[in-house]
């Protein structure tokens, strides 16, 4: 699973470090096949947002990464704003909290996800920013868990982008370099597909993201549902990602093409 942290293996498209302390989660594709392994061990991360549903009072998701604000203006909206924080360690959202006992790294990691408003890629939150964001949203994070949580977070986002690009490949003749224009966490707003699946007995997703991709000037909406994956006695954490374009005419055609391609 990917707590959009640097959780992917070097062989995958998500960034990772050979010294990453994580190493036993898996990300499942829509057909339940394992597509990559998360190099983070989340077995002892009770505060990881990937393991728990959001507090009922929260309408935001802590799942998405941060980007570099070109104006260097400190932002405090959290993790699902289109105008995200800078890596300026003096900004308020990057300072240690009053009750924090362990210092945390304050350096973000560049993602592979290109921004639509610049030539840069999004930058994932540092452990300190991630910790502060969780505190703001009502969690009770532990400082010692943040490096793993951030790593998981990054891997999941990288895998989501990889799945988006699989659909975008259908349109590579008209746009060879799609970019992420906007993202939004909607954990308390289940998608129509998730609702229907829950009515027939499937478990509900623990989070939802809506991503808007800039397909060389055309805005394309994607829906991402995050589910707990199949239990594996050898892996403490498993995540199932359902990534697909919204059900417009073109989105429906692309879904059908993907289904036929994967048969």
Question: Can you characterise this structure?
Answer:
21% of the residues lie in helices and 22% in strands. It has four helices and eight strands. The chain has helices at residues 127-136, 146-168, 192-199, 249-261, and strands at residues 23-28, 34-39, 109-114, 121-124, 179-185, 207-215, 218-228, 237-245. It has a six-stranded mixed sheet with strand order 2-1-8-7-6-5. Strands 3-4 form a two-stranded antiparallel ribbon. Helix 1 packs across helix 2. The longest helix has 23 residues, at 146-168.
Helical percentage: 10-25%
Average pLDDT works out at: 73
Outline the low-pLDDT stretches.
1-25, 31-90
| Strand residue percentage | 15-25%
* Biggest pleated sheet: 6 strands, mixed
Largest beta sheet: strand ordering: 2-1-8-7-6-5
The chain-level structural class is: alpha+beta
Number of strands: 8
Q: What is the 3D shape?
A: globular
Determine the number of helices (DSSP H or I, runs of at least 4 residues). 4
Radius of gyration: 17 Å
Summarize the helix and strand pattern as letters.
Answer: EEEEHHEHEEEH
How far the N terminus sits from the C terminus, by CA atoms, comes to 24 Å
Q: Descriptors for this entry?
A:
single chain; 263 residues; six-stranded mixed β-sheet; 4 helices; 22% strand; disordered N terminus
Overview in brief:
The protein is α+β, with helices and mostly antiparallel strands and 263 residues long. It is built from four helices and eight strands.
SSE topology sketch:
Layout: E1 23-28, E2 34-39, E3 109-114, E4 121-124, H1 127-136, H2 146-168, E5 179-185, H3 192-199, E6 207-215, E7 218-228, E8 237-245, H4 249-261
Parallel strand pairs: 1-8
Antiparallel strand pairs: 1-2, 3-4, 5-6, 6-7, 7-8
């Amino acid at each position: 699973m990917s707590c959009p942290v640097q959780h992917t293996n070097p062989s995958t498209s998500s960034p990772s470090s050979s010294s990453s302390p994580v190493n036993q989660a898996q990300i499942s594709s829509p057909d339940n096949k394992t597509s990559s392994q998360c190099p983070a061990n989340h077995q002892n991360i009770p505060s990881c947002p990937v393991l728990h549903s959001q507090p009922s009072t929260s309408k935001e998701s802590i799942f998405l990464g941060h980007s570099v604000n070109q104006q260097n203006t400190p932002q405090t909206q959290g993790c699902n704003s289109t105008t995200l924080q800078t890596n300026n360690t003096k900004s308020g959202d990057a300072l240690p909290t009053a009750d924090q006992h362990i210092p945390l790294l304050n350096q973000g990691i560049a993602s592979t996800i290109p921004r639509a408003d610049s030539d840069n890629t999004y930058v994932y939150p540092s452990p300190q920013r991630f910790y502060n964001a969780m505190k703001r949203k009502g969690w009770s994070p532990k400082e010692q868990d943040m490096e793993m949580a951030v790593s998981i977070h990054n891997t999941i986002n990288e895998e989501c982008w990889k799945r988006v690009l699989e659909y975008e490949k259908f349109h590579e003749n008209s746009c060879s370099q799609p970019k992420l224009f906007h993202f939004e966490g909607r954990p308390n707003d289940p998608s129509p597909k998730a609702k229907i699946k829950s009515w027939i007995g499937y478990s509900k997703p623990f989070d939802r993201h809506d991503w808007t991709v800039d397909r060389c000037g055309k805005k394309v909406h994607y829906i991402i549902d995050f589910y707990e994956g199949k239990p594996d006695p050898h892996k403490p954490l498993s995540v199932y990602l359902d990534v697909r374009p919204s059900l417009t005419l073109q989105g429906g055609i692309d879904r059908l093409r993907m289904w036929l391609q994967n048969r």
